[in-house]
Amino acid sequence: MIQNIKEMVVVFVFSPDGKEVMLIRKDHPEYLAGTLNGVGGKVEYGELTSQAAYRETKEESGLGIEDLAQYCIYWGMSGENRPYVLHFFKSFQGFEGYESLTSEKLEIWKVSKAMLAPDANNLPWLLPMALDRRVGVASIKEDSSEN
Fold this sequence. Notes:
By secondary structure, the protein is of the alpha+beta class. It has three helices and eight strands.
């Protein structure tokens, strides 16, 4: 965890063949309500991002993911001018036995349909990047001049 920077993890759990993905229908924070995303949340103090990704997936779906791989780090600034970092992880373990353990509902989507969903948020670029086995870990910095 980096001091004074809000760190979050997002995990996309795919079927072993990569054709389906487990997504969560967000109900918070307010600006994400109703959108689809991977499971995830805040990195706790003293926690590695991989530990947070495992913990959040377990807390939200009951799945103990053994093949987590980080594939993207996204740096940005919040509306309150606070820096944040999003760590994106993927798994191809599958989602057999998952269950929604929070107020946010888990859904299984065909990847091709999830990328086109009107409430897909950033899925059109995050899912293909996760599925591209040639990508190591991409580091993306938000262009603050656009804000």
